[in-house]
Design a protein that fits this description.
globular; 6-stranded mixed sheet; Protocatechuate 4,5-dioxygenase, Chain B; EC 1.13.11.29; 12 strands; alpha/beta; 16% strand; 11 helices
């Protein structure tokens, strides 16, 4: 548990940093990545060493899909095990990072385009803790989640992300957590252990997404249905794709773009992740 003195520090106003914090989109994949030593989890650990230590982490997770926009505002968010059919070791994991109520209020005030509810019931779901526990295993950095309003489309989320830009100046690591290609109905379960197996359509559209991201051409990504059948196969439902809108919306003209964990899994999933800045 975080000490009282540390908690007091967390509640103080965050100051602007000399270095602008990068933004991430992370393909989180199976919850088992949260406890296993995989090529993906090792890269998350390495990424934390490559970027500045954040003052806090704000995650937009595919697994908090709400009517309206909410942000976790409790002192110590619970670890949520929002899955079934996995080993008991996964359900036993606790990630006791503190929250940051003051930052939650500040973030809500930044989001002028949405009425943001300060939430005290959710916590950290597996779209967040499976990644962050590898990046910051000591669980001393405050972690918050921002929900995805399921009544709104990609353009709305892309524009809403821009209102979070001031947090990058204050050292907050903003991370979208989902998967660019995510079609569970078409997963080749017998090929999950292959190091990089993707159906042709999944690889093709994933490459198209990467080309557009590299070029800074976000409009087709926002209007992804215009990219044809392969895009609709990749995004049969939007919850795992919409976190990408938050990452892209936070990019400035000078930010460089790089990819990591750029692999396909089980035919119809990609773990492709992005670092901006």
């Amino acid at each position: 548990m975080t000490s009282l003195s540390s908690f007091i520090r967390f509640t103080s106003e965050l100051k602007e940093q000399e270095e602008l914090m990068p933004v991430l989109f992370v393909g989180h994949g199976s919850p088992m990545n949260g406890i296993e030593d995989t090529q993906f989890s090792r890269r998350w650990t390495q990424m934390a060493k490559e970027i500045p230590t954040p003052t806090a982490v704000l995650v937009v997770s595919a697994h908090w899909f709400t009517k309206g926009t909410k942000i976790t505002a409790m002192d110590f968010p619970q670890t949520i095990h929002d899955f079934g059919g996995f080993p008991k070791e996964l359900f036993a994991v606790q990630y006791p990072a503190p929250g940051h109520p003051a930052l939650a209020k500040e973030t809500a005030q930044l989001l002028h385009s949405a009425h943001v509810e300060l939430d005290h019931d959710w916590g950290l779901d597996h779209g967040t803790w499976t990644i962050v526990r590898h990046m910051y295993p000591e669980a001393k950095i405050p972690v918050l989640q921002l929900s995805i309003d399921f009544t709104k489309g990609p353009q709305y989320h892309y524009e809403l992300a821009k209102e979070l830009y001031a947090l990058r100046k204050k050292g907050v690591l903003i991370m979208g957590s989902g998967n660019m290609v995510h079609n569970l109905r078409m997963v080749a379960w017998d090929r999950l252990n292959d190091s990089n197996y993707g159906y042709d359509w999944a690889v093709n559209i994933n490459n198209k997404f990467k080309e557009l991201i590299t070029a800074g051409d976000h409009k087709p990504l926002i209007e992804y249905s215009s990219l044809g059948k392969e895009a609709l196969l990749a995004i049969p439902t939007p919850e795992h794709y919409l976190p990408l809108m938050y990452t892209l919306g936070l990019k400035n003209a000078k930010d460089k773009v790089s990819f990591f964990n750029d692999k396909a899994v089980g035919g119809s999933l990609t773990m492709t992740s992005i670092k901006i800045g």
